TrEMBL record:
PROSITE patterns: PPR. NCBIfam families: PPR. It comes from the Eukaryota. It comes from Acer saccharum. Keywords: Repeat. Belongs to the PPR family. P subfamily. PPR repeats lie at residues 17-51, 52-86. This is Pentatricopeptide repeat-containing protein. One of its GO terms (molecular function) is mRNA binding.
Amino acid sequence: MGFVCWFLWRKDSICLNEYIYSTLVSGLFKDEKSEDGLKLWKEMLEKGCKPNTLVYSVLIDGLCRVGKPDEAEEIFTEMVNRGCMPNAFTFNSLMRDFFEMGKSDKAI
């Protein structure tokens, strides 16, 4: 389904919103295409789509899962600075990553 949305979007047939972006970003990270996920994130911002908690959380989780904890922390900081409230999913992704890296002091 993500490919269909991507194709239609590229053809200007539909307008993507934050929910479609979150699905596409999540799918790209799960498919081990993190660079494409980050590229889509940047395109989303350039097109003026304001990310919500879901989009931020999906991106943070994806970055954590591909071993980019510093980038995940930067996105988390950006999220908070823009007034977007993290949720349990956001915190769970960061804590899981900290524990896996042996940085339990940051997770607690």
